[in-house]
């Protein structure tokens, strides 16, 4: 089965808003075995939308499904209804039940009724309304030739809910020819090319599972797409690949699907009933922010200190002034002292520290932008890592990567790995 | 002038990657007076890409420009070259100069040469290569009928650089019929509908400046698009609207274009040579993170304390235990004590504090998820605000909005406004 996605809105064609609906729909349809091979974004232009609907549904191999998002609201530039009627070659007519429902929606909320709202009760002859539980604009289901056309609102929350309620069951009932299952493994500790090399034989074309890598701020994601006749078969194919990659990459793999470095660290801390505190210079609160992104983080996160000034490092962490004088605030020695001092004062099992030069200015030949030290202290020792992240990176990238390196130091320790250079 | 954008890649049609190139190109073209009225995303499918190029360039009113991104790499599924040749009805031939350049690129870097790289030196007869300064895949410039087709790599950095070097000058030289200038004002302190009401007369259709609003985590952006015959005229139109909206909305407007609450607060702190420190409970480091996102923040940011546990609030901020017992950690009294204690110990001019329930659990009837107190202390007093953000919001939204409320408290103070409820 094939689908075409049409996103309608001048804010999209003008580049003011990035369309996320099409990617979301494509992924959902993909897991149902429907390939969304063509996405088209059009301005609020009745003729252009009608033309696209017409040409898509009459081609030599028309898609079984077209999903249109946007252009269903009450204003003059919402023209999806009209375009659909043009493409079907039928007039619009008012659906009295929908009109009544709209009127009640406004009365109940005490909103003033404006006549333009009545436009939302117009439907092409022969098309059916789809109820919108979250907003006023109903959707439309219509048939052109052999293609079923679903028109959904552009508001993501409304669109997603209506997709689940109206589109998904109908596609499932039609019984797709293939099921696609998607999974992800996330890795930290090696570059994308090194990881791709280690799984190169799985990444060749023509296998039943398509394997690809993407990199985002030093986290490498390995994406698996399995296509099979049914769910169980697709799951079996993909599970075999997941197990193989986990074996090959070992501790480089930190999680699957939606897991993040911080969610994995949080899970391990909870399981082991351990606590952590943070002392940050260059990451400036980001490390604490990422750890407290996790609901219930008060169970394992005791406190975070953003010691940006030297005085704060001395006052709050007990870093000795002569250490800063001798080695500079950006040094392995100071990172270590920050972590040790933080742990002692917080009374936590672990402490993580960061100090570095996030840029864009403040670097020198000896200590360039992108130099970051991270440290992990525990009762019987402290481990420090020196990162040279490269001055071509943005301030935000350097901070994100510094925080990830610190989280990974803790992850490896909680997993019982000894941390060696390059790990 | 009109343009069509074609994005090529199965990772895009499958929804694995969200295409940001089209929106970027649409906005750039828009400022040159070129309306990108149609964006099409296609899988790595030679026939589909060729068909789209053909039908787009032979229609009744073909676009003057087509920009294709993606599908120019060395692998078997990179088929933009072939599709373009099909659409032009010409064969591919090797460009010797490009082949030589590619070989040298690999030799210089010590990369192993693979024969598939030679595909990148293939061009449709009559088409011209466009040099790629950042990667190996050259672009292509071709003409079909009255349409100029530019094929650029899908890697955003390479695409943007080549757009600036090859596409932009040619469009400017052709002299667009109109220039579009885009500007944004950002507001905090009122809802989108309330702001839209105050500028409703500017938001009607048919004006020379198109005005629209969007909301993101309680920051309301007002977008202005002016179309005129030349830059000076467009600037004059838009400046008049900007001034009018600033007058009407007053202190609700905190910045323009790329400015954020934190960048505006940073600018004001620097101008006034004042310093700030932070004491965070529910925002968990986010407030410190946002302030230290600003390069050079060590000038005004002294320290940040993430006091997640009650003990940390007592130890690090001097909050009295009986205050927590009496009012609870989430209370105006504790927010105030946190801010005052933080400021005194840090020796900063101001301190900002937050305490609240970010959820998704931990709420009660009396103190529901979304209840957040923020406070701003200075030498002669402390101001506290109570926010009820609503339990329907995500943890991340509640934390972002809490941090923004604290930043806005400081912004208004630095501007000399007295802070009153609802401001």
Polypeptide structure, described:
The structure is a homodimer of 423-residue chains. Chain A has helices at residues 10-13, 21-31, 46-58, 80-88, 96-109, 156-174, 192-198, 231-249, 261-271, 286-292, 310-317, 321-327, 332-346, 395-414, and strands at 2-8, 35-42, 65-69, 92-94, 122-124, 128-130, 139-144, 147-152, 179-188, 209-216, 219-228, 253-256, 276-280, 301-307, 350-356, 371-378, 381-388. Chain A is of the alpha/beta class and 423 residues long. Chain A has 3 domains: 2-174, Molybdenum Cofactor Biosythetic Enzyme, Chain A, CATH 3.40.980; 179-256, Alpha-Beta Plaits (2-Layer Sandwich); 263-414, CinA-like (Maf protein). In chain A, the strands form 4 sheets. Chain A has a 6-stranded mixed sheet, with helices on both faces. The first copy, chain A, has a 5-stranded mixed sheet with strand order 14-13-15-16-17, with helices on both faces. Chain A has a 4-stranded antiparallel sheet with strand order 10-11-9-12. In chain A, strand 10 and strand 11 form a beta hairpin. In chain A, helix 9 packs parallel to helix 14 (395-414). The longest helix of chain A has 20 residues, at 395-414. The two termini of chain A are 45 Å apart. The interface between A and B is large, with 77 and 78 residues. Strand 14 of chain A pairs antiparallel with strand 14 (301-307) of chain B.
